[in-house]
Amino acid sequence: MKIDQIRRRVRDVLRMLVWLAPSGSAKNAALRRLGHRVHPSAIARPSLVWRVDELVLGPGSRLGRANVLKHLTSLALAADASIGRLNVISAHPVYKRLYSDGARLALDEHAKVTSHHHLDCSASVTIGAYSSLAGSGTTVLTHSVDLRRDAQVAHPIVLGRYCFVGTHCVLLGGAVLPDRSVLAAGSVLTRASSGEVPSGLWSGVPAAHRRPVDGAWFHRAGTHTRRVYVPASDTTVDDAF
Predict the structure, then answer these.
(1) What backbone torsions phi and psi does residue 97 show, to the nearest 5 degrees?
(2) 192-222 pLDDT per residue, tens
(3) CA dist 3 to 8, 10, 11, Å?
(4) Taking the complete model, does pTM exceed 0.85, yes or no?
(5) How many CB atoms are closer than 10 A to CB 229?
(6) Domain extent listing, the chain
(7) Dihedrals φ, ψ of 11, to 5°?
(8) Where residue 14 falls among pLDDT bands split at 50, 70, 90?
């Protein structure tokens, strides 16, 4: 084994051990010393992180506990973005090696991935500002088999700004959800066809465009919705969480 390979292996092991430690300023500082870009105000809960080359946690960002992150070229959370807990976020090493823009996950400012999701980032996955991969049990799958070529291939997946993905959805390689759009619970979003993809409500298997959508959620200025509507009294409670 070459010296450079040994050094990389040692660095990977040290990073993994530090990531398993409780969150705090000392952990953030240790991660910076090991080459990650972690803002002092970021929160990095204990997670299993293995062979993630570049990891960026911006100001006010959060990475929850018990996530599994492995074989990524880059994981980047912009300011106030967040990833919940018990997510599996990975790429196959072959795509990391062969795709110059593959094995990447990027969350723009105030974007959010909740908990219990599985993201295959063999090609890049981009989640736009103020968008939410919400609920639980959604699968983001960038790679598949090209039957015509008899070859495996991966295509990027893009969520625009102010998008909402409901629970138990499937997003396949090449899928695009435009700005200010909703993917209804249980839907399957397939590769975008050529031409402009309209914003609005998408639902079904495969998902099709149904109608325009709007509401206060699409114009909010924060990452999380902390208000609760009570139908029985037709009232909304602010800062309920």
Answers:
(1) -80, -40
(2) 876 788 999 999 999 999 999 999 999 998 8
(3) 9, 11, 12
(4) yes
(5) 10
(6) 3-213
(7) -60, -45
(8) very high
> Which amino acid, 124?
S
Topology (CATH level 3) of domain 3-213: UDP N-Acetylglucosamine Acyltransferase; domain 1 (2.160.10)
Computed over its alpha carbons, how large is the radius of gyration of the chain? 19
Report residue 19 as tokens: 């990531």
Query: Which residues, in sequence order, are CB contacts of 86 under 8 Å at separation 6+?
Result: 64, 66, 67, 115, 116
pLDDT at 1: 61
Q: Are 212 and 231 in contact (CB under 8 A)?
A: no
Q: Which helix (H) or strand (E) element contains residue 204?
A: strand 201-204
Length of the chain: 241
Contact present, 135 and 118 (Cβ < 8 Å): no
Instruction: Look at residue 23 in the predicted model and tell me its pLDDT.
Output: 97
Matching residue, tokens 């997946």 = 157
